[in-house]
Design goal:
Strand order of the largest sheet: 1-2-9-6-11-5-4-3
Order of helices and strands: EEHEEHHEEEHEEEE
Structural class: alpha+beta
Largest sheet: 8 strands, antiparallel
Distance between the termini: 38 Å
Strand content: 25-35%
Shape: globular
């Protein structure tokens, strides 16, 4: 059985992003045996992500439940930052290893823009960087026209209607991963990819993987941008 225990000497940095102050928690040296977690990819059955509303540009493979439970323990220390009730436990709605593999020329329109994972305001995303080399971090954005940094159910319609109108007016963005500010989006936070770094943030925050031009878009775990991703959905927040 793999060791999913946390590193007792992990280092935590707490940020409030942009104008809305959404939490971003950066935890370095998070797990005690990150190499062992990364080694799971060698025998994982990666599959291309498909399905309506799921725009991840690559492949994923399930992780054991114990890994998601460890992520829940990481969040236990951050309840105040996320407005969670004391002792709140999250339900894992995603628990996978993943790699970005889609060639730039094949990116769909949603894959060329910052995205949000859900407009459920009670879901926390946990990303774990698992490559020794820097394969690109994660950026967070504000939509300039609406000023939105998180997309709630109430904001979903005005945001999408404004975005569609902008695309009609400006044309489709280039067939590329977004790595910098644009006429439509302002970057409000940047996180670099560091081995065994975990970041925690609300899943409805606008964000995007920052995929460098020279990043290998490979499904080989020894070469590609290997990460783990866990989504934990909580009940009503206390704040």
């Amino acid at each position: 059985m793999r060791d999913f225990s946390l590193n007792s000497e992990r280092r935590v940095k707490r940020l409030a992003m942009g104008r809305e102050g959404a939490p971003l928690i950066i935890i370095d040296d998070a797990f005690a045996d990150p190499a062992g977690i990364a080694e799971l990819a060698a025998t994982a059955g990666f599959e291309t992500v498909r399905g309506r509303g799921n725009h991840f540009p690559g492949v994923r493979s399930p992780l054991p439940d114990e890994y998601a439970e460890a992520m829940g323990t990481l969040i236990d220390d951050q309840h105040t930052s996320f407005g969670l009730a004391a002792g709140a436990a999250g339900e894992a709605t995603l628990n996978h290893l993943q790699m970005v593999t889609t060639p730039r020329a094949e990116l769909s329109l949603p894959q060329r823009l910052p995205h949000f994972d859900t407009f459920d305001p009670n879901q926390v995303a946990c990303l774990h960087y698992l490559t020794e080399e820097d394969r690109g971090g994660t950026d967070f954005y504000r939509h300039r026209a609406t000023g939105f940094e998180r997309i709630s159910p109430e904001r979903f319609r005005p945001y999408t209607e404004t975005l569609v109108a902008e695309v009609r007016r400006l044309g489709h963005p280039p067939a590329d991963y977004i790595t910098k500010e644009t006429e439509q989006f302002e970057r409000i936070e940047r996180v670099d990819a560091v081995f065994n770094r975990v970041i925690l943030y609300f899943s409805n925050s606008l964000h995007s993987g920052r995929i460098p031009d020279d990043a290998p878009l490979s499904a080989d775990p020894q070469v590609g941008r290997l990460m783990a991703s866990v989504f934990l959905r909580f009940g009503d927040l206390s704040a």
